[in-house]
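Q: Could you write out the predicted structure for this multi-component system? I'm mainly interested in how the pieces pack against one another.
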Amino acid sequence: MNPLDPPAGAVPSAAAPGWTAQPAREGALPQLDPSAARATPSPAPPPGVVARVAIAGQPNVGKSTLFARLTGASLETGNWPGKTVERREGRVTSAGHTLAVIDLPGTYSLSANSEEERVARDYVLQERPDVLALVLDSTALERGLYLLAEVLLLPVPVVVVLNRTDLAERAGAPVDAAALSSALGLPVVPVVARTGAGLDTLAATLRRVATQRASLAPVVLEVEPETAALLTRATTLIAPYVPAPYTVNWVVHKLIEGEAEAAALVRAWLPAGEHAALDALLADAAPAAMALAGARYAWAGRAARSATRAHGSGDRSRDDSATWTDRIDRFALHPLAGLVLLVALSFGVYELTLVLAGPLQDSLSTAMEAAGKWCGARVAGLGPLAAAFVVDGLFGSVGLLLTFLPVLAVFFAAFALLEDTGYMARAAFVLDRALSAIGLRGKSFLPMFVGAGCNVPAVFGARVIESRSARLLTIILLPLVPCSARLIVLALLVPAFFATHAAGVSIGLIALNIAVIALLGLLLSRTMFRGERQSFIMELPRYSVPSLSAVAVSVWTKLKAFLRDAGTMIVVIAISVWALSVFPGALHGGDATIQDSYLGQLGRFLEPLGAPMDMDWRLIVAILTGFIAKEVVIATLGVLYAASGDDAIVATMQASISPATALAFLVITMLFIPCVGTVAAMRREAGTRWTLFGAGLLLAVSYVFGVGVYRLAALAGLDHIGGAG
Amino acid sequence: MRASNPNQPVPLCSVLELRRGARAVVRAFEGDDIEATRALARRLIAMGLPIGGETEVLVQRGRGPILLRAREARIALGQDEARCIRVERVAAAIAPRLGVESLGQ
């Protein structure tokens, strides 16, 4: 395989302009010649992969399902280098040949509108895949063909994948793949990704085109004479200076479209003497940009009509599912009914988590504990420190990591299901107005929904937000969404200190978190993120039955990503905190108690900070260990108050701290710096500096609110031990 | 890309001024920030709202986001984005489905 030097003749050259003044000369298109396959046999396949295939397509065309079906178990995920865009790769075998398939992010166009679009087009320009499969939705043909018009500006052979042909047929508007193929001059393969129909043909076609590199068809756009003149002017100006891997055609189109990145590139290529000409060109380009887009749609419309004309279907016929979508939307998008539906679905998901993930989590941690004890007994001969390391350090932290998984799996599955049905975009729509008041937009709801289960996947989920500033703001605010682990701490401690007002206090604490989200959102969006105009543009896809295989793939790949990206850091930090809690006592072979450990010393050192809230070092240490995971706070309290069992912890604490202190403790636990898993996720998604900023911000906020709440409670006379509210 | 008779300018309005169920043809994208408006136009065009394209207002309530039908897609837009889309109204005579649409009011 040597994909980096394609035959020069395969690239649409600058000599063949991609446009024509009206009328069109469509007959000049080179056609894919099937006999070429026999004339030039593909080279002997090297061991392993024969060619690289890139799959592209617009969002909501069923690309993920197609990719999951096509590559099956060989699917691997990662990130695009230096980007927060997920990269999915896999393999497909056809007639003994293996193709490496890469899933490009879903994009509406190939401008630099978003990181996804940049990733997709840079991959094609710089990595030069052997063939690009463009997935189109048969029920939204024109829009898909618009993207094709852009893709054909890139130097890559294209195979058109016509997905959802079954839906188009059912809607009475079937697409004639052969007619489309001859209209486009490209191979067109009809498939139904959900059932897997047509995928064998697709694999064979991809292999054939990849090894021949034959299927290239320049788009011939019909444009008005002044636009044609402008295109010619741009081509003449820049053609001598465009370096590989860029193509003159692509650069000309992006320049006329007014894309700032293309303009900056060209400015760097051109000698200074040509800059004035470039500026004049750009000044004239604005109307031409619209004309160019119009011409692309006209081209797409002509191709779409030639593919549907054969069946004489009315061009405006709407399918049944569209009507269904309208009916459901009348309810789901209603400001009140939609909100009720949203709340009901959220509660449903939490119930599901409790029912499915809870028992699994318990049995996993019991199993890990038993396994740790068994292994501890094996190494007991090496001394108590080795045994303690194995039981508490190693198995304790790996067990902690594993107990994350059931909750994550259920939440990932629920999210993938709701997203695959098309509902999630509706939830964002319903909440857009409320969220825009605090500097966010509707899409930020999607990660926040996940955050109520666990903050860790929520941070990864913030990727759906296109604008970098809105994504950063969402990631900074996400740890304030009270996750299920913090609710466990609430459930134990609140009734103990506020027997009569337990529900009110719990709701108040959760409301405080939401209020702090709103407050920080308001503040940050008007200071650090000021001037960042957050836009809300989102397609609401047609409702559809979710594909279970795509959901399964999504859950599996996200769990793998979690273990890979956050797992190591969780285990390392959990072991470190364990070490801090047993050393230096364990070194002297004595009883390794947390009281005299480095952690205990740190707690004592920080005690002056707790003084304004009447907090002693034990509560401080408990808050600090909450960094491992919020539920660890309870276990630490048990150790520090030398009590075993939840009831005993509560009784001992009641005897030694006042309700006001308990309240301050709860406030800080709810608002404190995120747990290690979340920090690991934040670091990967937002970088170290933003993570430190976010953690520092929450540290300050939790302290200020802790002291503030203590003062208020003291005013109410709650600062005496034993005085319950 | 103007209306058929350039001597008689067609009155344009923002898509935001249309009521639910109304149909219109996109004629221009206008906004204070020229760079941002061009970027917005590029995105909306790629999503199915080119100049000359027909659209229908599916949801329009108060100050919340609006929902447009554009070709085969449904596009949700914030008010600021919707304000930039200048449209020409289309008479409802060719839209028998309008009666059904307004039932939800």
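A: Regarding packing and overall arrangement: The longest strand of chain A covers residues 49-57.
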